Amino acid sequence: MPQRNVNLTDYFDNFIDAKIASGRFSNASEMVREGLRLIEQREREDEAKIEWLRTAAKEGFDAIERGDYTALSSADEIDAFVKDIHAEVSSALADGIRG
What b/e readout covers 5-25, taking b as 16+ CB neighbours within 10 angstroms? Predict the structure, then answer.
């Protein structure tokens, strides 16, 4: 198995020692591998979020091109619009729970 040397701050050195002492990990290598797995997972989740945002943006731009949008010109109109959406979503969720 390949080996690497790393430099740690005192904080992380003590953190590793504490996790090993707690029984959560058998050794520092296990803990580092777990940390790397978490970084991989976070990167996959971040990429999925970015893809979702790209899709949502495309859907929004497509809707604008079709003229399917509501123009709001004041803070009061925005507040009312958001409240209406909130009421619709709350009602739909309540119906789903009852249904």
Answer: eeeeeeeeeeebeeeeeeeeb
In the structure encoding, which two tokens stand for residue 17, read together?
Answer: 């020692």
In angstroms, the CA 72 to CA 69 distance is 10
Count helices and strands (H / E) in the chain.
Answer: 3, 0
Token pair of 91 as six digits = 């009602």
What is the model's pLDDT at position 21? 97
What does the block give as tokens for 2?
A: 């390949």
DSSP 25-84: -SSHHHHHHHHHHHHHHHHHHHHHHHHHHHHHHHHHHHHHHHT------SHHHHHHHHHH
Residue type, 21: A
Walking along the chain (99 residues) 10 residues at a time, the average pLDDT comes out as 93 97 97 97 98 98 95 96 95 82
Tokens encoding 10? 């005192």
Q: Are 31 and 20 in contact (CB under 8 A)?
A: yes
